[in-house]
Amino acid sequence: MVGQRRFRPEIYFDPAVVYFVSARPASPLGVETPALFAGYLFMTKPFLKSCLIMAFALWSETMGNQAIGSGKPDMPLADAKAFAAPTDLTATLADPINIDLKWKNHATDAAGYFVEYSPNLNGEFDIIAALPPDATSYRHPNLMPQTRFLYRVLPFFGKASNVAEITTGKQGPQQNPSPDLAKTVPPSPSHEVKKSVKSTLTAAEAAPTDLKATLIPPAGVKLEWKDHAKDEDGYLLEIKSGKNSDFEVSAFLNPGTTSLISYDFPFETTFYFRVRPFFYGKPSNLAEKTTGLSP
Q1: Distance between CA atoms of 180 and 189, rounded to whole angstroms?
Q2: Does the pLDDT of residue 60 top 60, yes or no?
Q3: What are the pLDDT digits (tens) for 207-247?
Q4: Are strands 248-253 and 234-241 parallel, antiparallel or unpaired?
């Protein structure tokens, strides 16, 4: 067994030499590399041994040149860098009831980070904050005195849709959506080949498209989009008000979602929306801290 794939070696016999040649899984560069096993190598003529060594060296050089010239990326390495876990999470007391968290980011393609804590210290975690991809710290404020807190930081990944916007109307009774707006967007055509959000090769193609926002007067909105992802953990709805503000995660949606209706937005305000199919990355190390006496 080589790389958890079974191969049946072919045995080549020569009166002067017996050896096995077996194939191993394709390298990241896409080259099938035979492996020479010397366990059954019996040489009776030094000349043949020299020829064999020279031939194998020539073959190795040729395959290496082909691999380099192919220009194919080492995708496992690219994904590992893009989706790397945060490290060096620490928790310190800023004062008796406020805990400061700090960590190091390594992912080159993070969409953001969830800060989580385990309320029962049992391995189950709740999200307490969703932070942008450049965040490396967070303060957990106003905590119960003399209580132990256990934390981790969880990256999330995935490409966002285009941005859609609406401006809400003046204050008044909320209308119901029209029959057309109340309809659910049909699923993507069955012939469409959906893309993985978990590969740097296809993440951009897995992003939603054609996001549009329709006002349901005076302060409701219907969002609709096309779903192209096949392996997301869910969708994130991200909203901001004002062009110069930052998008914030506002809702978690089920995988495959293509529409939603929401109400109770502030009146006479412009809002910007985007949706993101996402998956959870690997979490950081755990960090814990016990709060102090009540100030």
Answers
A1: 20
A2: no
A3: 999 999 999 999 999 999 999 999 999 999 999 998 899 99
A4: antiparallel
The pLDDT tens digits for 82-118 are: 999 999 999 999 999 999 999 999 999 999 999 999 9
Contact 161, 207 (CB under 8 A): yes
pLDDT at residue 193, as a whole number = 92
- What is the rounded CA–CA span in Å between residue 153 and residue 163? 27
- Examine residue 218 and say whether the peptide bond preceding it is cis (omega within 30 degrees of 0): yes
CB 134 within 8 A of CB 62: no
Return the structure tokens found at 170: 């003046």
Cβ proximity of 240 and 197 under 8 Å: no
Taking residues 35-39, report their average pLDDT: 36
Q: Answer yes or no: are the C-beta atoms of 229 and 262 closer than 8 Å.
A: no
Q: How many CB atoms lie within 10 A of CB 56?
A: 12
Residue ranges of the alpha helices (H) in 156-230? 179-182
Q: For the beta carbon of residue 265, count every other beta carbon within 10 angstroms.
A: 19
Can you tell me the distance from the alpha carbon of 278 to that of 237, in angstroms, rounded to the nearest whole number? 11
* Distance (Å, whole) CA 89 – CA 242: 33
Identify each DSSP E strand in 40-159 by its residue range. Answer: 87-95, 98-104, 112-117, 126-131, 137-140, 148-157
Cα three-residue angle 60-63-69, rounded to 5 degrees: 140
